[in-house]
Amino acid sequence: MLTFALDTSTPSPSLAITRGDALLGELWLGPEPGAGRRVLEGAHHLLAALDVDFRALERIVVGVGPGGFTGLRIGLATADALGQSIGCAVIGVVSLEALAVGLAETVAVGTLVVPAHDARRRELFAAAYRVGPGAELTEVVPPLALGPAPLADRLRILAGADAPIIAVGSGAIVGGEAFRAAGIEVPPAGYAVHRLRAAALIARIRAGAGRSTEPIYARLPDAEVNRRHAAGEGA
Amino acid sequence: MIDGPLLAIETSCDETAAAIVDGRRVRSSIIASQAALHAPYGGVVPEVAARHHLGTINRVIDAALAAGGVGLDDLQAIAVTQRPGLIGALLVGVSTAKALACVRRLPLISVDHLLGHVCASWLEPVALDPPFVCLIASGGHTRLDLVHDLAAPETLGQTIDDAAGEAIDKGARLLGLGYPGGPALEQLARSGDRTAHRFPIALGGKRVRDFSFAGVKTSLLYVIRDEGPLSARRRADLAASYQEAIVGPLAARLLDAAREHRVPAVALGGGVAANGRLRELVTEGAARQGLRVAMPEIALCTDNAAMIGAAAQFTAVVPWPDYLRVDAIPTAPPGGIAA
Ligand SMILES: [Zn+2]
Description:
The structure holds two protein chains of two kinds.
Chain A: E1 2-7, E2 14-19, E3 22-28, H1 39-49, E4 59-63, H2 69-86, E5 89-93, H3 95-104, E6 112-118, E7 124-131, E8 137-146, H4 148-159, E9 165-168, H5 170-174, H6 176-181, H7 198-206, H8 222-230
Helix pairs in contact in A: 3-7
Chain B: E1 5-10, E2 15-22, E3 25-33, H1 35-38, H2 46-68, E4 77-83, H3 87-104, E5 108-112, H4 113-119, E6 132-137, E7 142-147, E8 154-158, H5 164-174, H6 182-189, H7 214-227, H8 232-260, E9 265-269, H9 276-289, E10 292-294, H10 298-301, H11 306-312
Parallel strand pairs in B: 1-4, 4-5, 6-9, 9-10
Antiparallel strand pairs in B: 1-2, 2-3, 6-7, 7-8
């Protein structure tokens, strides 16, 4: 099946095309703020380089976040409209799972893998997965937005004192100090594991992790936070 | 002009809209309004709007295609609002339109939202042709355009502070009415005396036909502060006087401009064009001056995609694959509508 995958949840949007298990091509844009706006142009160039017509695509896979709201929405709107225009299925995958999957193949069974994006405002978009046999991922902490220090504390309590925890992604770099203080390993910046690959979204589909294309924002709009505050409902 | 049906998409503010337009004929126009979603915040929240557009746009497009009796294969082009508007909201429409068009290598037309309001009366059944003067008044815009060529209207004046609809909403809030305030203020004003209170006239700015509404709003704030709790009678009088201070100058300037530029018709667009008192003033004045009044039905005055399909007929077509680089722009082009 000819599958096109895209993820715009990070400042470095990623695109990939696979046929069956074979990766035909992949492309990154950025990293820079607003790189998501060029995702369709990138898709056009990738497809043209592989001599694939959009209408030949049989499935679209898209990262549903969490990530920067605007970039995320551009990717989702693009994926949904491609599917609508082609007449093929559009399947969502949690972007953080795609970030975890590359690392899961290289670590011991039982390790807690923590994919994290920089969410600004001194917070990370993060989740945690326990690695099982065959690099299977079991969600331990669902996607959320949290500061590095409270996140690190929570992960250490969840995993137990000596269990291995490894964090990856731009959020792991940003939160490096807090993570290392809690004994959480962070691979050196610049290592490929920190980069989200759209091809990994497709791997997650094969593992049965497909879902709707509804975005995961992990944060309420500021106006809603303020409204709840004013109404005494708490955020 | 596009020969055959085109799909138009509008997501610049708080309406998710799609339409099928074929020349001057509106084959379908679907509008999913978010007004109720924004009511608890007392105004449009950009992030809430963008989230809702994304969840709604594909269904709205499907509905427009179905109601228009056309399939994606029948389309000759796709038009989309590119500017001005809330950037996160615009990007949902622009990303959707580009991806839909790109798969089919259809031409894309990126439209100025305000040209959409100007072109709404060009559509059937109103079918107005230039020359005319057009007043666009909404929650986001207040502008007076002289139209000799629908591809290049000439802006005669615009608001230098609040938009007319914004001033109406703020006034309604000061008078304890909900959001959106337009219909509630108009309702209350109907039982009031519009001569009861003299507000400052909403004129000003460097161009003769510019508008200013900040003074009117501040004046209402002071009256309410100084007079303390208002009787029901006084509240209705203030509503009527306040509404008059806003829509009176809008109508006067529209009619003055038509006289000065010797055009045979005037047109209204934007949400404030739904205001009954404004419609009444324009209709009466136009009758005295012997002018034709083009007032599209209210669903074509408030934000909609059919008007974007109309404006697309007068906007340059961007061929495939050049439009892959088309991006949403939050601001209006300097000096008015881009040619
Ligand atoms: Zn408008």
